């Protein structure tokens, strides 16, 4: 029998839990959807609102350095993902940033016309491909292939490959280095969506010779609901391309208010409109907190939490119809564990009603995320104990739990 | 001599000033760039952070109705701009929303290829036109003409006309009804940028038979720095077009996570990624406050403040080289007054150093905005007194004041 208390006692990250608001009695395994609130965020936001906005007003763009927030926070995120500090900029949403990278990558070789991705990728990524292609349907085509057919689809028509490093449903990690190499061998740049990777596992964009990447601020970066996202563009591409979303803050001299667009040097051209300062402020606190931790400790604990969860579900719920949807090997898995179950939706609602929060992903996946900064081994034990009780009593089987909410 | 105290005493909006944080001793005439902080925003944001995010976490998408924030706040803004409540949605930035409307409008008549706007429009609007056209350069062309040549440029090639109702430099108001009619007579839809109109003067989109509009949340709506923007799409167009920025939250069934994009019915398809909830919460407080006021009172006071400012500058600074850049007739002017002056930048810095905050717009414009909810007639008097003193003493003429900051 695993000694859970000993695992938590020996956890080098255990001290981080107290830096977050964790509601009493809650086992929160949904940090891969919305990360918990860092305690420091409250005071930081109050200061931004009351002093920076309330008192300093428009002057804050200069005096409180609002204008550099996207660059400054981008440089911090760069340290989490193996990028140089001038390769990452914060702003807009992951969807919008996918579009920026897609439109930019099309400029690298105008003879190539196919936007390639895989079925089962996070939907917004492939929807943005469709939207971009619809602007120039005679020239640009989106193409989706099964995940196992990506390599054979890398032909001379492909302008760019868009993939997610850690799959949102299964948690399976793509081999970023091998795929990037294979694509480059065919002259194809790659856009990596790091939404379910950044802050949860070591990412080495430059070690993989990556071209473009995007990622989400509100999951493992703990930046708050709908936090700004980020965009990575390798130095070697920055001055060769520009985003079709060519807004004024990506201009070389935005405050000269000229009639013609001239992209700023470097990563700055990937800015578009005015950054949301409240969202940036909250995101920066979350990123600063992550930077205090050692990413190899995070990864080690993430793997251990997932392994323990799988082992306990197999031990206690073997007869209840769960089928592992994630890789059993932690090296192939991000910081989540997913199970198929035909009654997954109702089971998840029953768990949530008992204070164990994961989420459901259609059609049949129960998803449990592990945020090593604040989740404990005791959280995992409690989650499986609750799941076991729900399955043994059949208490999930009610109309109430089967009633789908607006957001699942 | 004007009795300033009597004007303030008779002001039906005077009570609103106390609903805002106004820093002691400051005359803030830059609400057309960043509106002041409503006092109620502080508690609202603390609640969103501490309870909704901190305690309720991911459940807030349903229980605190985060998922409907863009629609709910959009419906409130609709009341300020003459729209139906299902015609406006909040999210992203003005720049991004211009792109959504441009890409959508191109779908109305695929034989038309020109994106038309005017020189001197707010730069981001024309930059977004350029970016969109660069995706399909063989098909789409941006075209800028001088403001007075817009009518003759409305030919059969024009796919869409993009104009700003209230010019950001001069404050001149375009005749939305007449221009929309003229464009429609040539089969051309119009996108109106309301950034310097909404919340400052009555706007009647449906009365003008408008097609598309966008607007800014952080100016007269007092939504905070980088607040989410909004998009208006007339009911008659909503189901015929979709934005090229076709993100997952604009999908018909986002939580089914399908591989193919199917736009949601109605205005919802103009959503893209996950909305920034902190920004939405602050914006909603600002909009709610505006909805308590009578728009005709706002317009009347706005005109009076501007007229008084012009009269006092003419009276006291006639010899100092200022040239009115705004219409003298208040009916043709938004809620700002601008003056040309060759030393405008340094003069504005000197004003700011003395607690009178306006802003500078290249190449030579001093811009003073009037927010009728919190600016008083005494503010106007104090601003001109300070300007007069600066000009009479020549105290603007220093190296410090001529040194340009990152943000002007």
TrEMBL record, chains A, B:
UniProt function note: Catalyzes the cleavage of L-kynurenine (L-Kyn) and L-3-hydroxykynurenine (L-3OHKyn) into anthranilic acid (AA) and 3-hydroxyanthranilic acid (3-OHAA), respectively.
Subunit and interaction comment: Homodimer.
Organism: Hyphobacterium lacteum
Residue numbers binding pyridoxal 5'-phosphate: 94-95, 122-125, 164, 193, 196, 218, 248, 274
UniProt GO molecular function: kynureninase activity
Coiled-coil segments on the chain, per record: none
Cofactors: pyridoxal 5'-phosphate
Modified residues (N6-(pyridoxal phosphate)lysine): 219
EC identifiers of the protein: 3.7.1.3
Pathway listed: Cofactor biosynthesis; NAD(+) biosynthesis; quinolinate from L-kynurenine: step 2/3; Amino-acid degradation; L-kynurenine degradation; L-alanine and anthranilate from L-kynurenine: step 1/1
Keywords recorded for this protein, A-Z: Hydrolase, Pyridine nucleotide biosynthesis, Pyridoxal phosphate
Family note: Belongs to the kynureninase family.
Catalytic activity: L-kynurenine + H2O = anthranilate + L-alanine + H(+); 3-hydroxy-L-kynurenine + H2O = 3-hydroxyanthranilate + L-alanine + H(+)
Top-level EC class: hydrolase
Superkingdom, natural source: Bacteria
Protein name: Kynureninase
């Amino acid at each position: 029998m695993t000694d859970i208390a000993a695992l938590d006692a020996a956890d080098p990250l255990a001290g981080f839990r107290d830096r977050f608001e964790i509601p009493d009695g809650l086992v929160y395994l949904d940090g891969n959807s919305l990360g918990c609130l860092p305690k420091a965020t409250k005071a930081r936001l109050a200061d931004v609102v009351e002093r920076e906005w309330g008192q300093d007003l428009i002057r804050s763009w200069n005096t409180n350095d609002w204008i550099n927030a996207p660059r400054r926070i981008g440089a911090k995120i760069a340290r989490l993902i193996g990028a140089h500090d001038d390769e990452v900029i914060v702003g807009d949403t992951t969807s919008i940033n996918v579009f920026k990278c897609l439109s930019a990558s099309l400029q690298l070789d105008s003879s190539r016309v196919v936007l390639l991705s895989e079925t089962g990728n996070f939907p917004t990524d492939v929807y943005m491909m469709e939207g971009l292609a619809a602007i120039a349907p005679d020239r640009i085509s989106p193409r989706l292939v099964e995940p196992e057919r990506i390599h054979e689809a890398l032909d001379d028509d492909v302008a760019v490959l868009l993939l997610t490093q850690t799959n949102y449903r299964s948690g399976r990690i793509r081999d970023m280095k091998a795929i990037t190499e294979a694509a480059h061998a065919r002259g194809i740049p790659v856009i990596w969506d790091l939404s379910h990777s950044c802050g949860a596992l070591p990412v080495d964009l430059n070690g993989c010779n990556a071209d473009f990447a995007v990622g989400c601020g509100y999951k493992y970066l703990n930046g708050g609901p709908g936090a700004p996202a980020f965009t990575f563009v390798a130095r070697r591409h920055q001055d060769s391309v520009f985003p079709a979303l060519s807004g004024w803050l990506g201009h070389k001299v935005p405050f000269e208010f000229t009639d013609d667009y001239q992209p700023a040097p470097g990563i700055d051209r990937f800015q578009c409109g005015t950054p949301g300062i409240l969202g940036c402020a909250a995101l920066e606190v979350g990123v600063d907190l992550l930077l205090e931790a050692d990413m190899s400790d995070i990864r080690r604990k993430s793997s251990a939490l997932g392994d323990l969860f799988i082992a306990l579900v197999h031990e206690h719920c073997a007869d209840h119809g769960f089928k592992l949807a994630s890789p059993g090997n932690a090296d192939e898995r991000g910081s989540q564990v997913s199970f198929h179950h035909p009654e997954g939706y109702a089971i998840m609602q029953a768990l949530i009603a008992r204070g164990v929060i994961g989420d459901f992903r259609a059609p049949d996946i129960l998803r449990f995320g592990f945020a090593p900064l604040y989740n404990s081994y005791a959280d995992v034990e409690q989650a499986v104990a609750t799941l076991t009780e729900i399955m043994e009593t059949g208490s999930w089987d009610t109309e109430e739990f089967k009633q789908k909410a607006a957001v699942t």
